Amino acid sequence: MSRRLLIVLAGVIATGLVAPAGLATSGRTHSARAVKSLAGKVILIDPGHNVRNRLHPAEINRPVFYGIPGATKPCDTTGTATNSGYPEAQYTLAVGLHVVKILRDMGATVVMTPVNTRPWGPCITGRAALGNSLHADAAVSIHADGAPANVHGFYVIAPSTPLPGVGLGPRRIARDVKLGKAMLTAYHRIAGMKISNLYTTGFLRSDAYGGTNLSHVPKIFIETGNMGSPGNAAKLESPAFRHLAAWGIADGIRLYLTGHL
User: Fold this and answer.
1) CB–CB of 20/13 below 8 Å?
2) Which are the catalytic amino acids?
3) Among candidates 88, 131, 89, 135, which has minimal Cα distance to 112?
4) How far apart are the first and last CA of the chain?
5) What is the pLDDT of residue 261?
6) 167: alpha, beta or left, given left = phi > 0 and alpha = psi -120 to 50?
7) pLDDT value of residue 135
8) Which domains does the chain have, with CATH numbers?
Protein backbone atom coordinates (compact mmCIF):
# COMPACT_ATOMS: atom_id res chain seq x y z
CA MET A 1 0.00 0.00 0.00
CA SER A 2 1.32 3.44 -0.94
CA ARG A 3 2.31 6.07 1.59
CA ARG A 4 -0.47 8.28 0.20
CA LEU A 5 -3.13 5.69 0.99
CA LEU A 6 -1.65 5.05 4.44
CA ILE A 7 -1.97 8.76 5.19
CA VAL A 8 -5.61 8.66 4.17
CA LEU A 9 -6.37 5.59 6.26
CA ALA A 10 -4.51 6.98 9.27
CA GLY A 11 -6.73 10.03 9.10
CA VAL A 12 -9.87 7.84 9.09
CA ILE A 13 -11.36 9.77 6.21
CA ALA A 14 -12.35 7.09 3.74
CA THR A 15 -16.05 7.90 4.01
CA GLY A 16 -16.05 11.45 5.34
CA LEU A 17 -15.64 14.92 3.90
CA VAL A 18 -12.23 15.59 5.42
CA ALA A 19 -9.71 16.70 2.82
CA PRO A 20 -6.74 14.44 2.11
CA ALA A 21 -3.56 15.15 4.01
CA GLY A 22 -1.84 18.24 2.65
CA LEU A 23 -4.95 19.48 0.84
CA ALA A 24 -6.91 20.93 3.74
CA THR A 25 -4.01 23.06 4.98
CA SER A 26 -2.42 24.08 1.69
CA GLY A 27 -2.92 27.71 0.77
CA ARG A 28 -2.61 26.71 -2.89
CA THR A 29 -5.50 24.26 -2.78
CA HIS A 30 -8.57 23.87 -0.58
CA SER A 31 -7.79 26.41 2.13
CA ALA A 32 -10.26 27.52 4.79
CA ARG A 33 -10.94 30.63 2.68
CA ALA A 34 -11.96 28.42 -0.26
CA VAL A 35 -14.51 26.28 1.61
CA LYS A 36 -17.48 28.17 0.14
CA SER A 37 -15.67 29.24 -3.02
CA LEU A 38 -18.31 27.62 -5.26
CA ALA A 39 -21.33 29.43 -3.82
CA GLY A 40 -23.71 30.30 -6.66
CA LYS A 41 -22.27 27.69 -9.05
CA VAL A 42 -24.37 24.88 -10.51
CA ILE A 43 -22.62 21.57 -11.24
CA LEU A 44 -23.74 18.28 -12.77
CA ILE A 45 -22.00 15.08 -11.68
CA ASP A 46 -22.67 12.23 -14.08
CA PRO A 47 -21.56 8.77 -12.84
CA GLY A 48 -21.04 6.55 -15.86
CA HIS A 49 -23.52 3.72 -16.56
CA ASN A 50 -26.05 2.18 -14.16
CA VAL A 51 -25.50 -0.96 -12.09
CA ARG A 52 -28.83 -2.36 -13.38
CA ASN A 53 -28.21 -1.73 -17.09
CA ARG A 54 -27.37 -5.40 -17.66
CA LEU A 55 -30.96 -6.29 -16.71
CA HIS A 56 -32.39 -4.05 -19.44
CA PRO A 57 -30.62 -4.90 -22.72
CA ALA A 58 -33.48 -3.81 -24.96
CA GLU A 59 -33.71 -0.40 -23.35
CA ILE A 60 -30.02 0.41 -23.24
CA ASN A 61 -29.36 -0.88 -26.78
CA ARG A 62 -31.98 1.42 -28.29
CA PRO A 63 -30.20 3.60 -30.87
CA VAL A 64 -30.03 7.32 -30.15
CA PHE A 65 -28.59 10.29 -32.01
CA TYR A 66 -25.27 11.44 -30.55
CA GLY A 67 -24.43 14.46 -32.67
CA ILE A 68 -22.92 13.00 -35.86
CA PRO A 69 -25.30 13.46 -38.82
CA GLY A 70 -26.99 10.19 -39.75
CA ALA A 71 -25.25 8.19 -37.00
CA THR A 72 -26.54 6.55 -33.83
CA LYS A 73 -25.13 4.83 -30.75
CA PRO A 74 -26.72 2.66 -28.03
CA CYS A 75 -28.69 4.61 -25.46
CA ASP A 76 -26.28 3.47 -22.71
CA THR A 77 -23.92 0.58 -21.95
CA THR A 78 -23.15 -1.68 -19.01
CA GLY A 79 -19.61 -0.37 -18.58
CA THR A 80 -16.58 -2.47 -17.76
CA ALA A 81 -15.30 -4.24 -14.62
CA THR A 82 -12.04 -5.25 -12.96
CA ASN A 83 -10.78 -8.82 -13.39
CA SER A 84 -12.20 -9.60 -9.94
CA GLY A 85 -15.65 -8.46 -11.08
CA TYR A 86 -15.93 -5.00 -9.49
CA PRO A 87 -18.27 -3.11 -11.86
CA GLU A 88 -17.42 0.29 -13.29
CA ALA A 89 -20.98 1.45 -12.58
CA GLN A 90 -20.63 0.61 -8.88
CA TYR A 91 -17.29 2.43 -8.73
CA THR A 92 -18.50 5.55 -10.53
CA LEU A 93 -21.60 5.78 -8.31
CA ALA A 94 -19.49 5.55 -5.13
CA VAL A 95 -17.09 8.22 -6.36
CA GLY A 96 -19.87 10.39 -7.77
CA LEU A 97 -21.84 10.47 -4.53
CA HIS A 98 -18.72 11.54 -2.67
CA VAL A 99 -17.92 14.26 -5.22
CA VAL A 100 -21.44 15.63 -4.77
CA LYS A 101 -20.94 15.90 -1.00
CA ILE A 102 -17.57 17.62 -1.36
CA LEU A 103 -18.84 20.17 -3.87
CA ARG A 104 -21.91 20.95 -1.78
CA ASP A 105 -19.58 21.53 1.15
CA MET A 106 -17.79 24.06 -1.08
CA GLY A 107 -21.11 25.90 -1.48
CA ALA A 108 -22.15 24.71 -4.94
CA THR A 109 -25.58 23.60 -6.06
CA VAL A 110 -24.95 20.05 -7.28
CA VAL A 111 -27.18 17.66 -9.19
CA MET A 112 -26.25 14.06 -9.90
CA THR A 113 -27.55 12.06 -12.86
CA PRO A 114 -30.10 9.68 -11.26
CA VAL A 115 -28.28 6.43 -11.99
CA ASN A 116 -29.03 5.27 -8.43
CA THR A 117 -32.80 5.75 -8.65
CA ARG A 118 -33.60 4.61 -12.20
CA PRO A 119 -33.93 0.95 -13.28
CA TRP A 120 -31.57 1.63 -16.22
CA GLY A 121 -29.79 4.51 -17.94
CA PRO A 122 -30.47 7.32 -18.49
CA CYS A 123 -29.50 7.48 -22.14
CA ILE A 124 -26.49 9.51 -23.20
CA THR A 125 -28.93 12.03 -24.67
CA GLY A 126 -30.69 12.42 -21.33
CA ARG A 127 -27.42 12.88 -19.47
CA ALA A 128 -26.45 15.77 -21.74
CA ALA A 129 -29.95 17.24 -21.62
CA LEU A 130 -29.91 17.31 -17.81
CA GLY A 131 -26.81 19.51 -17.71
CA ASN A 132 -28.31 21.74 -20.39
CA SER A 133 -31.56 22.16 -18.48
CA LEU A 134 -29.64 23.15 -15.36
CA HIS A 135 -27.50 25.65 -17.29
CA ALA A 136 -24.67 24.04 -15.34
CA ASP A 137 -21.42 25.93 -14.91
CA ALA A 138 -19.60 22.60 -15.26
CA ALA A 139 -20.50 18.97 -15.85
CA VAL A 140 -18.26 15.94 -15.40
CA SER A 141 -18.98 12.36 -16.42
CA ILE A 142 -17.05 9.90 -14.24
CA HIS A 143 -15.75 6.67 -15.77
CA ALA A 144 -13.07 3.99 -15.51
CA ASP A 145 -11.49 2.55 -18.63
CA GLY A 146 -11.61 -1.05 -19.87
CA ALA A 147 -8.40 -1.03 -21.91
CA PRO A 148 -5.85 -3.90 -22.09
CA ALA A 149 -3.74 -4.71 -19.05
CA ASN A 150 -0.66 -2.88 -20.31
CA VAL A 151 -2.54 0.44 -20.34
CA HIS A 152 -2.49 2.39 -17.11
CA GLY A 153 -3.30 5.87 -15.89
CA PHE A 154 -6.10 8.39 -16.36
CA TYR A 155 -7.17 10.81 -19.08
CA VAL A 156 -10.00 13.16 -19.98
CA ILE A 157 -12.22 13.18 -23.05
CA ALA A 158 -13.24 16.35 -24.86
CA PRO A 159 -14.60 17.05 -28.38
CA SER A 160 -12.17 17.52 -31.26
CA THR A 161 -14.00 19.29 -34.09
CA PRO A 162 -17.10 21.50 -34.40
CA LEU A 163 -20.47 19.91 -35.09
CA PRO A 164 -22.67 22.80 -36.31
CA GLY A 165 -25.79 20.65 -36.41
CA VAL A 166 -25.84 20.41 -32.60
CA GLY A 167 -24.30 23.82 -31.89
CA LEU A 168 -20.88 22.45 -30.96
CA GLY A 169 -18.57 25.24 -32.01
CA PRO A 170 -15.01 26.36 -31.24
CA ARG A 171 -16.01 28.36 -28.15
CA ARG A 172 -17.79 25.40 -26.57
CA ILE A 173 -14.89 23.11 -27.37
CA ALA A 174 -12.43 25.60 -25.84
CA ARG A 175 -14.46 25.63 -22.59
CA ASP A 176 -14.44 21.83 -22.47
CA VAL A 177 -10.69 21.74 -23.01
CA LYS A 178 -10.15 24.33 -20.27
CA LEU A 179 -12.19 22.19 -17.87
CA GLY A 180 -10.17 19.16 -18.96
CA LYS A 181 -6.85 20.87 -18.29
CA ALA A 182 -7.97 21.84 -14.79
CA MET A 183 -9.07 18.26 -14.17
CA LEU A 184 -5.74 16.84 -15.35
CA THR A 185 -3.88 19.11 -12.93
CA ALA A 186 -6.04 18.48 -9.88
CA TYR A 187 -6.71 14.76 -10.29
CA HIS A 188 -3.04 13.91 -10.81
CA ARG A 189 -1.99 16.08 -7.87
CA ILE A 190 -4.55 14.74 -5.40
CA ALA A 191 -5.29 11.17 -6.49
CA GLY A 192 -1.67 10.49 -7.43
CA MET A 193 -2.72 8.62 -10.58
CA LYS A 194 -0.37 9.02 -13.52
CA ILE A 195 -1.54 10.31 -16.87
CA SER A 196 -2.36 7.46 -19.28
CA ASN A 197 0.48 5.86 -21.19
CA LEU A 198 -2.01 5.54 -24.07
CA TYR A 199 -2.96 9.23 -24.22
CA THR A 200 0.23 10.89 -23.04
CA THR A 201 -1.13 14.44 -23.38
CA GLY A 202 -3.87 13.47 -20.92
CA PHE A 203 -6.53 14.07 -23.59
CA LEU A 204 -8.58 11.90 -25.88
CA ARG A 205 -10.03 14.41 -28.33
CA SER A 206 -13.00 12.71 -29.99
CA ASP A 207 -16.46 13.38 -31.40
CA ALA A 208 -17.65 9.84 -30.63
CA TYR A 209 -19.28 10.81 -27.32
CA GLY A 210 -22.84 12.07 -27.19
CA GLY A 211 -22.37 13.25 -23.61
CA THR A 212 -20.00 15.99 -24.79
CA ASN A 213 -21.28 16.49 -28.35
CA LEU A 214 -24.78 17.28 -27.13
CA SER A 215 -23.78 19.29 -24.07
CA HIS A 216 -24.32 23.04 -24.28
CA VAL A 217 -22.47 23.53 -21.00
CA PRO A 218 -18.78 22.85 -20.26
CA LYS A 219 -18.50 19.08 -19.97
CA ILE A 220 -15.79 16.41 -20.02
CA PHE A 221 -15.44 12.72 -19.31
CA ILE A 222 -12.72 11.59 -16.93
CA GLU A 223 -11.46 8.02 -17.25
CA THR A 224 -10.11 7.85 -13.71
CA GLY A 225 -7.94 4.74 -14.26
CA ASN A 226 -7.94 1.49 -16.20
CA MET A 227 -9.91 -1.39 -14.71
CA GLY A 228 -8.04 -3.76 -17.01
CA SER A 229 -4.69 -2.88 -15.40
CA PRO A 230 -4.01 -4.94 -12.23
CA GLY A 231 -2.24 -1.99 -10.60
CA ASN A 232 -4.95 0.53 -11.43
CA ALA A 233 -7.70 -1.94 -10.54
CA ALA A 234 -6.26 -2.42 -7.05
CA LYS A 235 -6.53 1.32 -6.53
CA LEU A 236 -10.02 1.65 -7.97
CA GLU A 237 -11.24 -1.15 -5.70
CA SER A 238 -9.84 0.64 -2.62
CA PRO A 239 -12.17 2.89 -0.56
CA ALA A 240 -9.15 5.01 0.35
CA PHE A 241 -8.30 5.65 -3.29
CA ARG A 242 -11.95 6.36 -4.16
CA HIS A 243 -11.82 9.09 -1.50
CA LEU A 244 -8.77 10.60 -3.20
CA ALA A 245 -10.38 10.24 -6.63
CA ALA A 246 -13.47 12.11 -5.44
CA TRP A 247 -11.38 14.93 -4.02
CA GLY A 248 -9.33 15.10 -7.21
CA ILE A 249 -12.45 15.42 -9.37
CA ALA A 250 -14.05 17.97 -7.06
CA ASP A 251 -10.89 20.05 -6.94
CA GLY A 252 -10.57 19.91 -10.73
CA ILE A 253 -14.02 21.45 -11.01
CA ARG A 254 -13.15 24.02 -8.35
CA LEU A 255 -9.93 24.94 -10.16
CA TYR A 256 -11.82 25.40 -13.44
CA LEU A 257 -14.52 27.57 -11.88
CA THR A 258 -12.27 29.72 -9.71
CA GLY A 259 -8.87 29.62 -11.42
CA HIS A 260 -7.20 29.25 -8.02
CA LEU A 261 -4.66 26.49 -7.53
Assistant:
1) yes
2) 223
3) 131
4) 28
5) 74
6) left
7) 98
8) 38-258 (3.40.630.40)
